[in-house]
Write a structure and sequence with these properties.
The protein is mainly α and about 575 residues long. It is about 70% helix and about 0% strand. α18 packs across α19. The relative contact order is 0.16.
Length: about 575
């Protein structure tokens, strides 16, 4: 036998085959699917009703149920109402500006992808990782809130035990299919929306003296100088509570990447945001301010102690004669927290997936199963949130507090950046000679809305710093806590800029207007928009003509006219 001869049962091992085998095993064990690949895409499975309900009530949570009363206690009902109106106007402008781009380019990375494409890769990198941190670190705070809510019924069970009971099923639901997320969010949001509507009607009837044996306060809480308390300093501090309540409105743009016919569903969901802001925030704050005096101690204890019995909603229901309201509100609050946790997993995993697909995160997190589920990105969110949750126990929660401070102002930074991206998008669109008629949705009053977003973001940024400096007694750590999130933003931006310059050898920082990519991920090619919309309109009219008019038909007709 020759020296190099190989026996039949000793066939040479192909390195490539071995590598693929190991990768397959890795995917089977860690990812849970051997067909996971960076070639697979997420599924467009969320219907119009899913996106609509996510827009209207998807992020209603502890901010409105527990913390809203703190704004009234701090600065009076008039200041709180004005604060929520200003932030609501700001948020509406953000959503409209973002909606115009997301309807045309519906991608899961949303503003991260758009920032990288329309402004600079550094901005996309910064927004993506900043947003991922924000949502991943929000999961532990939601778990803590859920544990407190459940301890109301079962005080003998430890917080970490409740957290485990909650996080496991929510995580498993995420592993099934995006349709499960959309369906669960639909019902969670519907419960919250119904609760808010009932609360507003009950509160206004009580305030007007419509409940027998319970004379209402009328406008007494807005009279005798009680509407505005503490001047501009206190008014500026209420922005913190307003931001917390409005957090997550941009989630519709992230979900657009997995919605059916985004050129139709996204504009409808975006328009519904106006209803959400007016109905579920402005009217709720007005109702609380009318029914509960700013000096009432329950307004502060609800937020400080997460005491559901002191929730403004519970207090108003009980004063209106509904004694069992505390259990109902607690149950609805639990669905709100479950919904928020669900959204945290969804948003963080999709953003990490987008970063990986763009080469700004490890490729592993770009793996998606044949069902369209980014399992590695979800596992990463689970790991980070679990470790962070442990910090709520270790060291009396100091580490967790500072981690939250890192992301505390991130929403404001993201929203302000969206205004800049919108301005840049329109500049590129005009420079390349594109027609606005090709856009599925065109924002009104351009450039007032995105420019207003940038200006309001700067003003609110200054106002938050002013309130931190003027807070008595003065503590330097409050100022640091307010602006430490900016440090993360700057470090990410400058870090990637330096890597781009010296690591990749790229000297051109901003994407030239004529080189901005307006074709990739677009819902249609230039000039096709009007044709497709006309064809779909005729199809809908044809379908409507074959349906016998009924209550569902009329409701559908009304919904289209409203949204």
């Amino acid at each position: 036998m020759e020296k190099d001869a190989v026996l039949p049962d000793e066939a040479p091992v192909d390195d490539e085959v071995a590598s693929k085998t190991l990768t397959s095993v890795w995917k089977g064990v860690i990812v849970g699917s051997r067909d996971a690949s960076t070639e697979n895409e997420t599924k467009r499975a969320m219907q119009s009703r899913h996106l609509m309900m996510i827009a209207i009530g998807g992020t209603i949570g502890t901010g409105i149920f527990l913390s809203a009363g703190s704004a009234i206690a701090l600065a009076g009902p008039g200041s709180a109402l004005l604060s929520y109106f200003v932030v609501g106007l700001f948020v509406y402008s953000v959503v409209i500006s973002l909606g115009e781009m997301s309807a045309m380019f519906p991608v899961s990375g949303a503003f991260s992808v758009l920032g990288r494409r329309f402004v600079s890769p550094a901005l996309g990198f910064t927004l993506g990782w900043n947003y991922w941190f924000q949502w991943s670190l929000s999961i532990p705070s939601e778990l803590t809130a859920a544990a407190i809510i459940l301890q109301f019924w079962a005080p003998h069970v430890q917080a970490w035990q409740w957290a485990l009971v909650i996080i496991v099923p929510v995580f498993l639901l995420q592993l099934i299919h995006v349709r499960v997320y959309g369906e669960s969010e639909y019902w969670f949001a519907l419960i919250k929306v119904l609760m808010i509507i009932v609360f507003i009607f009950t509160g206004l009837i009580y305030d007007w003296g419509g409940v027998k044996g319970h004379p209402g306060p009328g406008l007494s809480n807005f009279r005798n100088g009680q509407a505005f308390i503490g001047g501009f300093q206190n008014f500026a501090q209420t922005f913190v509570y307003a931001f917390y309540s409005f957090g997550g409105v941009e989630l519709v743009a992230v979900a657009a990447g997995e919605s059916v016919k985004p050129h139709k569903t996204v504009p409808r969901a975006i328009k519904a945001t106006f209803l959400r802001i007016v109905l579920f925030y402005i009217l709720t704050i007005l109702t609380i301010g009318l029914c509960i005096n700013w000096q009432d101690p329950t307004l502060l204890s609800a937020a400080d102690n997460s005491d559901v019995t002191a929730s403004p909603l519970t207090v108003v229901f009980q004063r209106a004669g509904f004694g069992a309201a505390v259990h109902v509100v607690n149950a609805v609050l639990l669905t709100a927290v479950l919904s928020a946790t669900n959204s945290c997993f969804y948003a963080s995993s999709r953003m990490l997936l987008s970063l990986a697909r763009s080469g700004q995160a490890p490729r592993l997190f770009g793996w998606v199963t044949s069902r369209g589920v980014p399992v590695p990105a979800l596992v990463m969110a689970l790991v980070v949130s679990s470790v962070t949750f442990l910090t709520t126990i270790w060291g009396e929660g100091m580490v967790f507090t500072w981690l939250l401070n890192l992301t505390g102002i991130s929403a404001l930074l993201v929203w302000g950046s969206i205004g800049l991206i919108s301005l840049r998008f329109r500049a590129a669109y005009r420079a390349q000679g594109r027609s606005l008629l090709d856009l599925p949705y065109t924002q009104p009053f351009f450039p007032l809305l995105p420019a207003g977003v940038v200006v309001l973001a700067l003003l609110m940024f200054i106002a938050e710093g002013y309130s931190a400096v003027r807070e008595q007694p003065f503590e330097a750590k409050n100022v640091v806590a307010t602006y430490i999130g900016v440090t993360l933003y700057i470090v990410l931006y400058l870090g990637y800029t330096l890597y781009e310059r010296f690591g990749l050898g790229i000297r051109q920082h901003f994407v030239p207007l004529l080189e901005v990519d307006l074709q990739t991920d677009a819902v249609w090619k230039p000039g096709e928009g009007a044709v497709i919309r006309d064809r779909e309109g005729k199809d809908e009219e044809s379908a409507a003509g074959t349906v016998t008019p009924g209550w569902r038909t009329w409701l559908s007709y009304a919904a289209k006219r409203i949204y």
